């Protein structure tokens, strides 16, 4: 059983969004081809879904500016611009994404006291989203992951998939993903590879 996990393909992370990833919208047509022609049994999408007072927002910390380092619940925290606030257009999926083919949407980042990069659990690892349980129930043996952004939510989701689904083959689809920082992208791909995540392109999958 093969599953495709689309990470945070939302307006907020695409050009014009509140936390735009460079060239972020270019992943949408690749994702749509994977959805239609990748041979997946299950298609899952994660969705950043923050309350307006989320503690990772610089606006919640007087004197802090976006992208500065700060602290959240005693842990170091990047201070982000307000983004993907529940019920706003910024939090909606990109309008060109083939939503009708998505079987399950996993929302994340709802607890204002902790950030949630991974689609599987909060950054402090205290709370699970339920995604691992869903994929286990579907008897998934292969999981392909792509989306936004490579050096944050995609990387942490892939690493958690390796930890929480030890019997599942996990692959990262590089051309269906974009990241924020070029050096961070290189390091993220290296870390994923070291942890047993295979690095592939959509061409490999669509040629299968």
From TrEMBL:
InterPro entries: Isochorismatase-like_dom, Isochorismatase-like_sf, Isochorismatase_Nicotinamidase
Annotated SUPFAM superfamilies: Isochorismatase-like hydrolases
Single GO biological process annotation from the record: pyridine nucleotide biosynthetic process
Family: Belongs to the isochorismatase family.
Pathway: Cofactor biosynthesis; nicotinate biosynthesis; nicotinate from nicotinamide: step 1/1
Parts of the chain that traverse the membrane: none
Organism whose genome encodes this protein: Rhizobium wenxiniae
NCBIfam families on file: PRK11609.1
GO molecular function list: metal ion binding; nicotinamidase activity
Domain Isochorismatase-like: 3-202
Superkingdom of this protein's organism: Bacteria
Record keywords: Hydrolase, Metal-binding, Pyridine nucleotide biosynthesis
Protein name: Nicotinamidase
EC code: 3.5.1.19
EC supergroup of this enzyme: hydrolase
Keyword ATP-binding: no
